[in-house]
Design brief:
Structural class: mainly alpha
Order of helices and strands: HEEH
Largest sheet: 2 strands, antiparallel
Radius of gyration: 17 Å
Strand order of the largest sheet: 1-2
Strand content: under 5%
Shape: flat
Number of helices: 2
Number of strands: 2
Distance between the termini: 31 Å
Helix content: 25-40%
Length: about 90
């Protein structure tokens, strides 16, 4: 994901530290730029699940509602990190 400083312009504000939304363009990147503002030097990742997190109507392969996208990925990551910390 490009994290160039120019994307920071989308969240600049005249009255606040940053804006909570970057507008319609570059949504994933501006969301990541908002997070970047708070994490400092910590290692981090922005998992953009907004488009896949909820189904508005029943589909042939999915029920209406929350999809649980990312839950298995985060569970696997937590297990891998727990195993690496045991070594």
């Amino acid at each position: 994901m490009p994290m160039d400083e120019e994307y920071g312009e989308y969240i600049r504000s005249d009255i606040a530290d940053i804006k909570q939304t970057g507008g319609r363009g570059a949504g994933s990147v501006t969301a990541a730029k908002i997070l970047e503002h708070f994490v400092g030097n910590a290692r981090w990742a922005h998992l953009d699940i907004a488009g896949t997190s909820y189904v508005d109507s029943v589909k042939a392969h999915q029920e209406k509602g929350g999809t649980g996208v990312g839950v298995r990925t985060l569970t696997e990551l937590a297990q891998l990190l727990a195993q690496s910390n045991k070594k």
